[in-house]
Amino acid sequence: MSLFQLLSVSASGMAAQRTRAETITENLANAETTRTPEGGPYRRKDVVFASASQSSPFGSVFQQALGPRVEGVEVNELITDTREPEKRYQPGHPDADKDGYVAFPRIAPAEEMVNLMGASRGYQANVNAMLAVRDMLHRSLDMLK
């Protein structure tokens, strides 16, 4: 595996973790949203990752010389929570039903914050991997001087 392929793998991981972090922050921002354009409360979203082959940025001619295909990660699917919303008794709320209950999203802010920390750490791990590759490239160039 070449160093450039390692950079490609880390870049795919960074892009996937960025999408995950954006989705989590959307969930947190809408944790109390009771009315959406689609109707009803906001529905929690989650990102599903899948492995994906990474191509060399230098084209297919070099890909043959670099060896077998390298697997990275990509966002495969964005799933929406289909569970029933949480019902809270708030008779004065504008979105209350005839019995005074309001449907709220099933979002646990503490759980979302833990997920956001995981996405941040995954992103940082990919940054560190890219920095290690950069250092290896610099050392290789220094040896050639």
What share of residues is helical?
40-55%
Number of helices: 3
Proportion of residues in extended strands: 15-25%
> Can you list the strand order of the major beta sheet?
1-2
Shape field: elongated
Q: Mean pLDDT, as a whole number?
A: 89
- The secondary-structure element order is HEHEEEH
Instruction: Supply Rg.
Output: 22 Å
Termini separation comes to 24 Å
Care to count the β-strands?
Answer: 4
Low-pLDDT residue intervals, each spanning 5 or more residues? none
Biggest β-sheet, characterized? Answer: 2 strands, antiparallel
Helical/strand content category: alpha+beta
Q: Any overview of this molecule?
A:
This protein has 145 residues and is an alpha+beta fold. The protein has one domain (3-144). Helices cover 48% and strands 20% of the residues. The chain contains three helices and four strands. It has helices at 3-29, 60-66, 109-144; strands at residues 45-54, 70-80, 86-89, 101-104. The strands form two sheets. Strands 1-2 form a two-stranded antiparallel sheet. Helix 1 (3-29) runs antiparallel to helix 3. The longest helix is centred in the C-terminal third of the chain and has 36 residues, at 109-144. The protein is elongated and about 80 Å long.
Please give a quick description of this structure.
The protein is α+β, with helices and mostly antiparallel strands and 145 residues long. It contains three helices and four strands.
Topology readout:
Elements: H1 3-29, E1 45-54, H2 60-66, E2 70-80, E3 86-89, E4 101-104, H3 109-144
Defining traits:
145 residues, alpha+beta, two-stranded antiparallel ribbon, 3 helices, 4 strands, 48% helix, elongated
